[in-house]
Amino acid sequence: MTKKVMIVGLGLIGGSLALGIRRAHPKIEILGVDRPETLAIATDRGLIDRPSALTEAVSVDVVILAVPITQILVYLRELSALGVRALVTDTGSTKAEIVRLADKLGLNFVGGHPMAGSHKSGVNAADVNLFEHAYFLLTADNELLKDLYSGLGAKFMVVEAQTHDRVMSQVSHFPHLLASALVMQSDGFSSDFPLTKKLSAGGFRDMTRIAASEPAMWASILLSNREAVLSRLADFKAQLTEVESLLAAADSARLTDYLTMSRQARETMEILPGNSANNHLLYISIPDEKGATLRVLALLADISITNVKLNENNREDIHGQLQISFKTRDDLTRAKELIALATNFSVVEG
Ligand code: NAD
């Protein structure tokens, strides 16, 4: 039975894990390793029982490394040098490089990747609901770890490390690079056409949201999975060349076929709703009449709302004028049901 856990890195992910462990296992002692300022906040907020030092890892049951990838690699070496026998796990967004090193060092290691996040970072962003309904990928099945994390409300899935990185390169890492490149292209274009910045809404916003994430963290993710991402990039250039030729030839039939195939392919994909405080979003089309907004808000009086935004201009690419974000996915589902029962307003998930 797990009695003592050490979390190294108490930022968004490590802090949220601490809260989830506490929720299911209030008796487990949680030790923290981070910068002194962070540890003070983590202790005050009750995320950890007390600050610690890495050397104490020799007497805990589980060590969780929730630091940037480059630091995970450093800590694996240090844990090995200390002769730690405890179960060691991590939260890094790539897995192959990390698992390869842990195996080489002979650690008792299972890689982890919680597929939830936010553009926010740091201990103050820790949220017990962050992993609710999200996939939590493990590089090997491990009952102890699944039990430790049972309070997170996550769905566990075992994925071999190399496969993990190949799949992530396509669905996460390469799209990130693409989003950043799209923003850079548009930024350059806006020096000739300043209106570009003013009118960047809807599709552009959806495609580039991830480019707002923390640059240093993303640079380390991309470098850790460099070859797989480079392969996706080369493959994508071929896709672009194909669409370019259809457009250049003004081939309406084949262009429509291409867009139809793409739409059909998207429908077969299980596109996940995502798990961040910002992702439990509803867009509600409200009629332009007095009291419509208040009517919706009154319906949701008992539900925990984190943000309400009114879009002033109802453009074709904005899903609805009223945008409400919820704390958890369950709250969002309840809100959707209530609005459908009491109004005929159209509601779309963000
Ligand atoms: P974060 O910046 O919120 O927190 C990182 C924490 O690690 C900070 O408290 C920082 O002080 C601490 N830290 C940094 N270097 C350290 C060191 N050498 N020793 C001790 N503490 C140190 O970052 P995060 O979002 O919590 O990410 C942590 C890990 O989880 C990363 O490996 C990241 O790839 C992974 N991850 C992040 C997300 C996300 O969306 N943020 C999602 C899944 C996985």
Can you describe what's shown?
The protein contains 13 helices and 13 strands. The chain is globular and about 65 Å long. Helix 3 runs parallel beside helix 4 and helix 6 packs across helix 10. Helix 5 links the parallel strand 8 and strand 9. It has 350 residues and is an alpha/beta fold. It has three domains: 156 residues, Rossmann fold (3-Layer(aba) Sandwich); 87 residues, 6-phosphogluconate dehydrogenase C-terminal like domain (6-phosphogluconate dehydrogenase C-terminal fold), CATH 1.10.3660.10; 69 residues, ACT domain (Alpha-Beta Plaits).
* CATH homologous superfamily grouping of the largest domain: NAD(P)-binding Rossmann-like Domain
Which sequence of strands runs across the widest sheet? 3-2-1-4-5-6
Number of helices: 13
Q: Between the first and last Cα atoms, what is the distance in angstroms?
A: 41 Å
The oligomeric state is single chain
Report strand %.
15-25%
What is the strand tally?
Answer: 13
Largest sheet: 6 strands, parallel
**Bound ligands:** nicotinamide-adenine-dinucleotide
Envelope shape: globular
CATH architecture of the largest domain: 3-Layer(aba) Sandwich
The helix-strand sequence is EHEHEEHEHEEEHEHHHHHHEHEEHE
Describe, in short, the structure shown:
With 350 residues, this protein is α/β, with parallel strands linked by helices. It has helices at 12-24, 36-44, 69-82, 96-105, 143-148, 161-189, 195-198, 202-208, 215-224, 226-248, 252-268, 292-299, 329-342; strands at residues 4-8, 29-33, 50-51, 62-65, 87-90, 109-110, 112-114, 135-138, 155-158, 281-285, 305-310, 322-326, 346-349.
